[in-house]
Amino acid sequence: MDIKDCRQKIDQIDDQLIRLFNDRMELSREIGEHKRKLNSPVLNPGREREILRRIAAGSSKELGAYSQVLFRMLFDLSRSYQDRLMAGEASLGKEIEKATENTPKIFPTEGSIACQGIEGAYSQLAADRLFSTGNVMFFNSFSGVFQAVEKNLCKFGILPIENSLHGTVSEVYDLMKNYHFYILRSVKMQINHVLLGKPGATLKQIKEIYSHEQALWQCGNFLKQLPGVKLSVCENTAVAAKKVTEAASPEVAAISSENCARLYGLSKLKADIQNSDCNYTRFICIGKEMAIFPGANRISIMVSVSHEPGSLYRLIAKFAALGVNLLKLESRPVEGRDFEFLFYLDFESSLYSPEIIQLLNELSQSNESFVFLGGYSQV
Length: 379
What we know:
Layout (H helix, E strand, L loop, with lengths): L2 H36 L6 H14 L5 H23 L4 H12 L9 E5 L5 H9 L4 E5 L2 H9 L5 E8 L3 E2 L1 H7 L5 E9 L3 E4 L10 E4 L1 H6 L1 H4 L6 E4 L3 H10 L5 E5 L1 H6 L3 E4 L9 E8 L10 E7 L6 H10 L4 E9 L7 E8 L5 H13 L4 E6 L3
Parallel strand pairs: 1-2, 1-3, 7-8, 7-9
Antiparallel strand pairs: 3-4, 3-11, 5-11, 6-9, 6-10, 12-14, 12-15, 13-14
């Protein structure tokens, strides 16, 4: 046969395959209905192993591995289909529907806002961007921000979540699993670091530089040009600027912002010292109550997977089956469990989609570590 004949033959086989696939999924649905009535688990490892052994025996040696991949994918699709049937009565979907109906149509411009650091911190600048008349309260740590929101001391909290140069703010991710909150909005800010010193000081005089660990990393190329200068880590860049103001010696400087230069009466010794002009930090705004404002197109969740081959693939396959674009996948170790990880996923979708609600319902019922972190938009 020539290539045209081969393709025509493949088309005929594909037509048979799709009919057989529809028949198989219909039978899978019926089995799912029986499992739902009997309150039986969707996953049946023994049944899957039995099928894989039969498939392996009937496959050629050359195509055996490919056959295994094909049927494992069919298992994933069947389980996902059955999970949705089992998740039909899940409460999460109802909570999300209620939140979309009751959330105000316009994001608030005022309220009490918890930020880590002091006046001039980048978190405060992010808060100012979101809330034009907000009342900012400062806390010494990221955990303090989470606690302020959870205990209703503040209605909102602002936290840095990731940087385009240095990556994830791991401390914030590690704290997420310990507190009850929802992400309400995200803001992406360009970060331009400036080396600040006392009025009249020069770059050649500087022997010690204060800043936050992330800022020091983001300015690593510049700092390599200053051999012998001591680097001291502070809680954040605003604290660093304040320490320079309070220091008696003109030999100290801070990596901070232009806003802190004005705020603390410092001079700019060198501007734009970050490794790249494409230096952005993403902040999240959190609240205690679920709220989904119009335009929300980003969803964040936490979920765990079992420590076995293919478990992460099976999780991602659920999103791939719906054509959902994953924006971020971050793993953090589960404390006290060897080689078990909690995954943080951001994906692009709408909570008005019935398919997405079904997926979230499915995950909430089938995964004991699942947490819905919020549906929101980024500005």
